[in-house]
Structure prediction request, 407 residues.
Amino acid sequence: MSLLELNDVKVHFPVRRGVLFDRTVGHVYAVDGVSLSVEAGQTYGLVGESGCGKTTLGRAVLRLTDITSGEVVFDGTDLAALPEEEMRRSRRRLQMVFQDPLGSLNPRQNIESILAEGMAAHGIGADRTERRARIVEVLERVGLPADALSRYPHEFSGGQRQRIGIARALVLEPDLIICDEPVSALDVSIQAQVINLLEELQEQLGLTYLVIAHDLAVVRHISDVIGVMYLGALVEEAPSDLLYAEPRHPYTRALMSAVPVPDPEVEDNRERILLRGDLPSPANPPAGCRFHTRCPWRQPERCDTERPQLTELADGHRVACHYAAEIADGRIQPVRELAERILPPEPDEPAAGSDEPAGPGESSAPESSAGPGESAAPESSARLAGAAEPAEPPGSGESARPSESKG
Prediction:
């Protein structure tokens, strides 16, 4: 049995209007029917562009955000049905590392007070001396000195503050830690330190992680299984290496094609898919497939009216697309009006950006040059947004992040 199972979880925020009479006029469908499972000792990575509902889903697991419907089963117990007091006691086994390391720490408390607060609330440690000994031990695990106890959050660097956030979770000895963008606010060198620390702690303590992130390289490095979210729904799920080698959902393919490769020859000779349009509003999601308004492989009748369910195509590879198999074997080709495909020119054609026009009969977007069995998915980190160029060239030392959605 999985340590954590989500069954058709929905989180809808009401939209209210009125001065004298407050009435609900609609809902924001932040999370709309997500089902997944996380095994004990596993790292599950959750990716998707800004506004797709990743963070809301993570907060819903801890019930920091109210769940509209569905089940959150943790070690056989449905957390969604627990009374408040029982849920408070259960949070000792589920902890969260927040995205903003400074904003998640109380600036008026020193580090000892911050870490001891949760221990006292859950009855860990007989007295202050015992709790302090435990805190010093955990600080040593995360690479901080014992003299940090008397210091305040503003006296630390960003990487050190994130280590304090990890230590705050560890002092309660949890089974599951939800990491919400744990390294997105940190420098590249510090990101590597924090990611390596999380892996070491997992090996030593047998922790289970649910990692929410934008950076595809970070997710691939740390995750065993990856789920891709789009507009409140899970559209693809697969083991990490398989997802990068063979992305099946059109949205995942666009994400992977946006990742630059630190090899000029590969970068110049691979397929790019630039999606047209913005992310639709979660307050008014499209009918049928959520992605059909931007999908290059859209088939009007079925895609516009019938919402696809996650279907297993291979061992552990689930895709929410009606035509995933047909797209994979080339039976359905992309529609040029819905996406621009940027491909390398043929030897007898001018390079992209040249003033020389293409000759008669020449196509401005030839088919991909990738050979049979070769994947268009690259191997490095970059922005998740399928419609954005990376802010920094490969090898610049900066870890890129996805562009903000304007939908």
Notes: Residues 188-205 form the longest helix (18 residues). The chain has a mean pLDDT of 83.
